[in-house]
Design goal:
It is built from 38 helices and five strands. It has 714 residues and is mainly alpha-helical. Among the domains are: 68 residues, no CATH class; 101 residues, Serine Threonine Protein Phosphatase 5, Tetratricopeptide repeat (Alpha Horseshoe), CATH 1.25.40; 122 residues, no CATH class. It has a five-stranded mixed β-sheet. Strand 3, helix 38 and strand 4 form a beta-alpha-beta unit. It is elongated, with a radius of gyration of 32 Å. The structure holds one DNA strand of 10 nucleotides. This is Pentatricopeptide repeat-containing protein.
Length: 714
DNA sequence: ATAGGGTTAG
């Protein structure tokens, strides 16, 4: 093999690498082996770097094989590159094997393996190796310290980052630009932006290496701190603007909904010869998506394709999560289909957004589907996915499954405990919520404000007054958490529903926050239940003032008047709503899924095609359950009609129709699942109890607030 | 000659 041919191969590979055509370069390496040319050490190192960068593990392994065949492992640079290649491909155990098999180590070897552990979040192993390397031969240098810093800025706490920074200085090193970057990252993560500004000053005062990375990170810090002006001036003064800085600024404007500026910046950067990359497009797209501009977001997808690139996981997850957050759950599922059609593999973030969409739809079947998907793709061990699964199952009607997922989590986070407690709460299982709370405290996990919202909701839905009261007191006393309006609302609801209306009133008078609509709403609902007209009128007066266009308040009040047969007051309120032209109440609907179809029963919309048959079946059911003791509760009808008519109206409640249809269409013993968008009335609640007994079928009914589980008349 | 630490998008 003539020397010039070896040289040619090496040169071609190097040129490809330099032009960032990683895959081309790796292909060249393969071709070259067939012609038995020799690669130089430098080329191998560069190739291995490329494998680390693009995640080409298999190519990296091939190069490793080549290294072993040619006995190049004694070359320290090559072995060190192998360590780095494996750890960048998340295969730290292989990196460790290379490290352990080396006869000699250099300081770079130590730094490579420590960096590997730190970058994967294995901070203990990184620290152990750090201690091990300290010997007469080796002393940690600034790079070793920065490896620890970087690891802790990603996976550790803000405090540990600062401690390491101090120890680094104690060991006689001066923080360089990489150290500053890690500290900045920790600051952005925690949101201590004031300290970020101090660091900015520190960098300038100490004339630290003020390179393009530090500059970009500072721009990004100001963007994330909502100081777009400051970020823009800094960006403007950058000598060498890089694409990352452009992207950061564009993401800032897009996120704030200032799309004009974002688009102008995009044009400017193109004019200055920077081709937008995927991060640029995704920065723009996420803003559109999260603010509900579906069409614009979709058009960015097309612009990406037109620019010759392919929308990636982040692009699609943006689309999905934006839809979910705007409560367009169907869109979210639709985008997932499009994403799969484009052959883009979802990751755990995608799964979380999808599961949230299923929770929003309360669609158990879809949720189970996404769960299976996550299992197949190996995402169920991800703590975020697992926590979202708990949330999905408790919102879609399978508390048992939520509990199974919860128990399987190895290292539970505060969020997972909170979700599970909330799960019990929405099922009205207050005792279980309390037991779980106690277990959580025993594990040494400190509850936060959200924990107490969940716990108090549990007490509220189960009527556990004394317990709720005690927990409310302990919030401030034992845990030093200031109750928010949500906690006060739970208490008003708890007291009011139990009939302690005067106590609820006193409670409202004593609370240090200004009562908002939710507080008065809770009181009004309690007043309706217990038919207390005086307090109801006070609550309503406040509500009409706070939200004059919320029809639900007027309806509640009219219901109360009608229960007391005060029809002239009902008319008066009706006139008031006409004068104010309050939009009528949201349509009431229930739905149930039979096979792959969702059947919607709406109070106003068009009737179901099988309506006659359903009513026939329902009449049969009602006469059956009457024998078991069911009594229609005509107090649930707020029309000025006679009692026989009222009983007829009760039969037309959408949840009864949905339950009946579910029973008719499913023969098996599977539970019937019905979702209703508003609260279930007392009569339907009673009827469902008896139906579950008469038909020996479980019935799950989710209403606007919580879950009801009927089994054997319970 | 050729190693090790860093910036943006969900």
């Amino acid at each position: 093999m003539p020397y010039w041919e070896d040289f040619l191969w090496n040169t071609i590979i190097m040129v490809n690498l330099k032009k960032q055509r990683w895959m081309n370069a790796l292909q060249m390496f393969r071709n070259m082996q067939f012609s038995f040319a020799k690669v130089t050490g430098g080329t191998i190192v560069k190739l291995l770097q490329a494998c680390g960068k693009v995640g080409a593990l298999n190519e990296g392994k091939q190069i490793h094989g080549y290294v072993l065949r040619c006995r190049l492992e004694s070359n320290l640079s090559i072995s060190n590159s192998l360590i780095s290649m494996y750890s960048r491909n998340d295969r730290i155990e292989l990196a460790r094997r290379v490290f352990d098999s080396m006869e000699k180590h250099s300081i770079s070897s130590w730094n490579s393996i420590i960096s590997g552990y730190a970058a994967l979040g294995d901070l203990d192993d990184a620290k152990n190796l750090f201690n091990k390397m300290e010997s007469p031969n080796f002393k940690p240098d600034i790079i070793t310290w920065n490896c620890l810093l970087s690891g802790h800025s990603l996976y550790g706490s803000y405090e540990t980052v600062l401690t390491i920074l101090q120890r680094l200085q104690g060991a006689g090193f001066k923080p360089d630009s990489c150290s500053v970057m890690s500290v900045l990252r920790a600051i952005i993560e925690v949101g201590f932006f004031n300290f970020g500004k101090e660091i900015h000053g520190y960098v300038i005062r100490n004339k630290l290496d003020y390179d393009v990375y530090v500059e970009t990170s500072l721009v990004d810090m100001y963007v994330k701190n909502d100081c777009l002006k400051k970020a823009h001036t800094m960006f403007h003064n950058m000598k060498n603007k890089n694409i990352v800085a452009w992207n950061s600024l564009i993401s800032g404007y897009s996120f704030k909904g200032l799309f004009q500026v974002a688009e102008t910046l995009l044009k400017e950067m193109e004019k200055e010869g920077n081709k937008p990359d995927l991060a640029t497009w995704n920065s723009l797209l996420s803003g559109y998506s999260i603010r509900g501009h579906k069409e614009e977001a979709l058009s960015v997808i097309h612009r990406i394709k037109r620019s010759g690139s392919t929308p990636n996981v982040v692009s699609w997850t943006s689309m999905i999560s934006g839809s979910t957050q705007n409560e367009n759950y169907r869109d979210a599922l639709e985008f997932f289909i499009q994403m799969q059609a484009d052959n883009i593999k979802p990751n755990s973030a995608t799964m979380c957004s999808l599961l949230q969409a299923c929770a929003g739809l309360a669609s158990l079947k879809k949720g189970e589907e996404i769960h299976c998907h996550s299992v197949r793709l190996g995402f169920v061990d991800d703590i975020y996915v697992a926590t979202t699964l708990i949330d999905m199952y408790s919102n879609a009607g399978n508390l048992k499954m939520a509990h199974i997922v919860f128990r399987k989590i190895q290292s539970k986070t505060l969020a997972s405990w909170n979700c599970m407690i909330m799960g019990y709460a929405i099922y009205g299982k207050g005792e279980e919520a309390i037991i779980l709370f106690a277990e959580m405290c025993q594990m040494g996990i400190r509850p936060d404000a959200i924990t107490f919202t969940a716990l108090l909701s549990g007490c509220k839905n189960s009527g556990l007054i004394e317990e709720g009261w005690n927990y409310f007191d302990s919030m401030k006393k034992e845990y030093n958490i200031n109750p928010t309006i949500e906690h006060y609302c739970c208490m008003v609801d708890l007291l009011g529903r139990a009939g302690y209306l005067d106590e609820a009133w006193d409670f409202i008078q004593m609370m240090p926050l200004k009562p908002d609509a939710s507080i008065w709403g809770a009181l009004l609902i309690s007043c309706r239940i217990h038919k207390n007209i005086e307090l109801a009128e006070t609550a309503a007066r406040n509500l009409f003032e706070l939200e004059p266009y919320n029809s639900a308040n007027y309806v509640l009040m009219m219901n109360l008047y009608s229960t007391l047969n005060r029809w002239e007051d009902v008319e008066r309120l009706k006139d008031l709503t006409t004068v104010l032209s309050v939009k009528s109440q949201q349509p009431v609907w229930s739905w149930t899924q039979v096979n792959q179809t969702i059947h919607i029963f709406s109070a106003e919309g068009k009737p179901h095609t099988d309506e006659g048959e359903i009513y026939f079946e329902l009449y049969k059911l009602v006469s059956e359950i009457r024998k078991l003791g069911y009594q229609p509760d005509i107090d649930c009808v707020y029309q000025n009609i006679d009692d026989n008519e009222k009983e007829k109206v009760l039969l037309s409640h959408t949840e009864k129709l949905a339950i009946t249809y579910g029973l008719m269409k499913t023969k098996s013993q599977a539970p019937v699942r019905v979702i209703k968008n508003t609260r279930i009335c007392h009569d339907c609640h009673q009827a469902a109890k008896y139906i579950s007994l008469a038909q020996s079928r479980e019935i799950f009914l989710k209403d606007g607030v919580r879950f009801h589980h009927f089994r054997g008349g319970d």
